[in-house]
Amino acid sequence: MDVPAQAAILDAPAPQQVAGATDPFSSLSAAKEKHARFLSWCSENEVRLHESLELKLSSGVPAAPYGDEFASLSSTDLVHHGMCVHAKARIAKGAQAATIPKTAILSPQSSSLSQYDPTFVPCTIGGITLSDDTASPLATPHLALCLLHEFILGPKSRFWPYLDTLPPYGVELPRQWVDGSPEYSILKHTETEQVMKRLQRESSAALPDHTVTDRFLRQFFFGKGLAHLSQAHPGLVSSNPDPSSGTSSPATFMRLDRLHEAAGSQSFSSDELWRLYDMAATLVSTRSFVIDWFHVLAMVPIADAFNHKTSAPHVEFECDDVVCTDCGALYECEHDGLEVAERSGAKADDPDTVTLTVIRSWAIPRGRTVEIFNSYGDLSVHQLLIRFGFATNSWGSSQYTWSSPASEDEDGIEVANALGLSPTDVQRIAAVVDGALQITRAPLEGQEKSHFYKMDPELADSCQIPEQDPVVDYPPVDPSRPLYVYSSGFFSDSLWLFALASELDEARPGTLDVASLLEVNAQWWHPFGIRGKIEAVGLGAAANIRRLVQRRFERLEHACSVQLLKTISQVRMADA
């Protein structure tokens, strides 16, 4: 199981408490009340969960960010009880585990922010089709602003019973860690750090999953977001630039679910509102779904209660995404510029809903329930950590990446050293590898490359031997880091050819060119007759890749020393 089950039997006896420790059950009564109100809200808004499924409260996790200002809070304030979905019985494959009308989802289009501030115009898709790639980079900032607006409204918001179940301080994400802090030190030399550094260089969302940086969020919030909040909620934003002029009780009201209690009577500094906005943004990052051409990105009640499992999830998220961009209509409307059949493949009697459909059945132990999982995508460990704030023990999609040795940055130098290349050699070999890649990638752009098969397909057919999978992968997700190795054993074509070229250059000094590199590469991957120097060159290239990976391991071990982990634990225990 990739994500530990968090459900707890609500009538289970409380465990013995350690002196000074937070008692999670002291907050359980309030959580049960919120849970009941949310279930009533779901019923009123026709949000349905299959009768064989049930929402369960978690056993409770620390909810507050670490810091001295929160030291005086009670255990009720410090613990959050989330929700997860459990099955009491089996459900047939293809059945609907949950249905959520689009009228019940929270998006920039369905939020009341534009009613309070007519100048707020929700973002739209950035292409002719909807996908994670075409959704506007403003999708996350806009939804976070709408979410914060609804929290300010509190019980006046039609989404309040749902909002009241969300983590009140947001979710801690790596992008919030400051370089030099004990937490950030864990990320040193990892893929998470590399992706975060790349994101910091970008001015907008740089990944196709609405992952944004503090820099981009700050640009939007201080550039436009504050003005929208000030327009929608007069008196909320303090006119005094001094941060101390804001709320006098930050530990009490600097949480999303209590914000409405203070919003009507006192103002907040821009820095305080930024912190609250950032909390809302973490909820968007960890809980939102891409919906359709109209809503784009939205918070979906019930759907976000299904935890993630990389392999063998039980349900999958589905909805009709091709709708009218002006009104969200699934069928014919006054804005139609396309034929109805062209715009939607849904049947006329299908409701415009979001569904979670059962794709895999499960066994139920007698007298027990089992947790039901969704999948947030085939994501690597670092992608899960950056966007969702957790990592799993499934390493199949994990990878180590490097920039080209020609880039002369830290990773490029690491590659050059592992391959035994001087700066002059690097530039010369890089030019040859680039020329070879243009040829190997050209015939079958975007497909598996026959240049790197262990066995030629025609030979496999004639010998009646199953064709083997390629061990070389293409292309890299990040063009700036074209050299990579997957934990499953795949490596990039760029890395292989660079390693092979460096060995060939050493074995045959002065003869390396594109033609000779491709010739040796073809002979190496041919299943028969590899002998002598060709075999030695190929084995040498493989040894260089192994050496490169070993150097990365050594850097990771140095960064994540036992003493560092102890330091982080001590810091967090002190803050708690």
TrEMBL record:
SUPFAM superfamilies: SET domain. InterPro entries: SET_dom_sf (IPR046341), SETD3_SETD6_MTase (IPR050600). GO terms for molecular function: protein-lysine N-methyltransferase activity. It comes from the Eukaryota. One of its GO terms (cellular component) is nucleus. CDD domains: SET_LSMT. Gene3D superfamilies: set domain protein methyltransferase, domain 1 (3.90.1410.10). This is SET domain-containing protein.
